[in-house]
Design brief:
Its cofactor is FAD. The chain has about 400 residues and is α+β, with helices and mostly antiparallel strands. Helices cover about 30% and strands about 25% of the residues. Strands 1, 2, 7, 8, 9, 10 and 20 form a seven-stranded mixed β-sheet that branches. A seven-stranded antiparallel β-sheet has the order 17-16-13-14-15-12-18. The longest helix has 16 residues. Bound molecules: flavin-adenine dinucleotide.
């Protein structure tokens, strides 16, 4: 039977980085994945350019039942450490918006970086490896694969969350945690578009493809100011993806369709200059024209000129545009979600080493853990930081 110091299950962002670090520290590492290629989500990420970290990474950008858990790893392996590694490989990158760093050329460069680091650490990578069972005995962990059994003193679970089942996502890590007596918080799709109830969806159907700056607020008061996109299924775009992580089924979200400009003041100014201008043409200046057309057909925007618009109408109109209340029907689910909320309960893991407190030699890193970042490179940074912290302890 083949023996290693460490077996890592999952050759995604966290598994690849952990394997490389552990290998470079002199450990014999076996990295297993059920897919044909390593780092499949990395290749898909950031529209093929991988938003590999965020300049403003801080614990407040992560959701968890234990918001303190991520602090240690994020502080010990920071965004600046990963940026230094990217620089070392000469990978060109740029800040797109809000501190989000993307490769100039291709996400493949990040996978190549990770593979080169694994090579430096003499990591054995075995793809198309389905893990059938895991057992623990006095010497460590026995992992049964399709066709072989392998053994190691330590086992790292880096099998990710449930989003995008087409890319190999599986509940493996959660089941394994439960097998060893660890609690797993219920999971749910996050960073995911909203679907809408049929009547509203039909009213908004012609807006598919329209994007505009917004501020969106969840029922718990959490808000994000980013672009929103109307789709043929409902609402998407960065602000919607962000707020989806804070939304509970049945709740409303409140959308400011003109966060940059006070529409009441704008209408007053326009009325002074052009009293005979229609309200519709006036609002088509700060808002997308197609949106204004739909809002007029729904009766939200009265068919009047500015001088005909009375104070009550103006107040009701601007209030509804600055605080449009929408009750999503649901989300598009794991099929399109970028991440999974919930996962392995962090109170049972060491925040310094990511080792299960009551199961020596068993570690959980990356998305399988109950730590979920905002949109914008935060999830990869958690993968790098948790992987690094774990590798130091192996
Ligand atoms: C379309 C998309 C775009 C994204 N873009 C970004 C972005 O730009 N920036 C960002 O920060 N985050 C982004 N994310 C989120 C990010 O990809 C994940 O948070 C990150 O990949 C998690 O890393 P991980 O190593 O924990 O899991 P993963 O990268 O998901 O890796 C887990 C690996 O485990 C393997 N596996 C699962 N089950 C088994 C099993 N039973 N046996 C063997 N192997 C198994 C899987 O095949 C996979 O290779 C995006 C996600 C998606 C879906």
């Amino acid at each position: 039977m083949e023996k290693y110091d460490v077996i890592i299950i999952g050759a995604g962002a966290a598994g690849l980085f952990c394997a490389a670090q552990a290998g470079q520290r002199g450990l014999r590492v076996l990295l297993l994945d059920n897919g044909k290629k390593p780092g499949r989500k990395i290749l898909m990420s950031g529209g093929g350019r991988c938003n590999f970290t965020n300049l403003y990474t801080e614990p407040a950008a992560y959701l968890s039942h234990n918001p303190h858990f991520c602090k240690s790893a994020l502080a010990r392996y920071t965004q600046w450490d990963f940026i230094a590694l990217v620089n070392q490989y000469g990978i060109a990158y740029h800040e797109k918006t809000l501190g989000q760093l993307f490769c100039d050329d291709s996400a493949q460069q990040i996978v190549d970086l990770l593979m080169a680091e694994c090579e430096k650490g003499r990591v054995t990578l075995r793809l198309r490896s389905e893990v059938l069972a895991v057992r623990r005995d006095d010497e460590g962990y026995l992992v049964q694969l399709n066709g072989a059994e392998v053994r190691a003193g330590k086992l790292v679970i880096a099998s990710g969350g449930l989003s995008m089942p087409g890319l190999g996502a599986s509940p493996f890590g959660y089941r394994l945690a439960e097998q060893f007596g660890l609690r797993v918080y219920p999971t749910r799709a996050a960073l995911v578009p909203f679907t809408l109830h049929k009547p509203l969806l039909e009213q908004l159907q012609t807006l598919s493809g329209v994007s505009l700056p917004t501020t969106i607020e969840a029922a718990n008061g959490k808000r994000f100011k980013e672009a929103m996109l109307f789709t043929h299924r409902g609402l998407s775009g960065p602000s919607v993806l962000q707020i989806s992580s804070y939304w509970q089924p049945g709740e409303f979200v409140t959308i400011d369709l003109s966060p940059e400009r006070d529409l009441a003041a704008f209408i007053d100014e326009e009325r002074q200059a052009r009293p005979n201008q229609s309200l519709k043409n006036t609002l088509a200046k700060p808002l997308p024209k197609r949106l204004v057309d739909v809002l007029q057909s729904l009766g939200t925007i009265p068919e009047v000129t500015l001088k005909q618009l009375n104070a009550k109408q103006q107040r009701e109109l601007t209030e509804s545009l600055h605080a449009w209340r929408v009750q999503p029907n649901g989300t598009e689910g794991y099929r399109t979600a970028e991440v999974t909320l919930g996962g392995v309960d962090t109170t049972q893991l060491s925040s310094k080493t990511l080792e299960a407190r009551d199961v020596p030699g068993l570690y959980f890193i990356g998305e399988v853990v109950d730590v979920t970042g905002w949109l914008g490179g935060y999830n990869f940074q958690w993968a790098w930081s948790s992987a690094w912290a774990c590798a130091q302890a192996l």
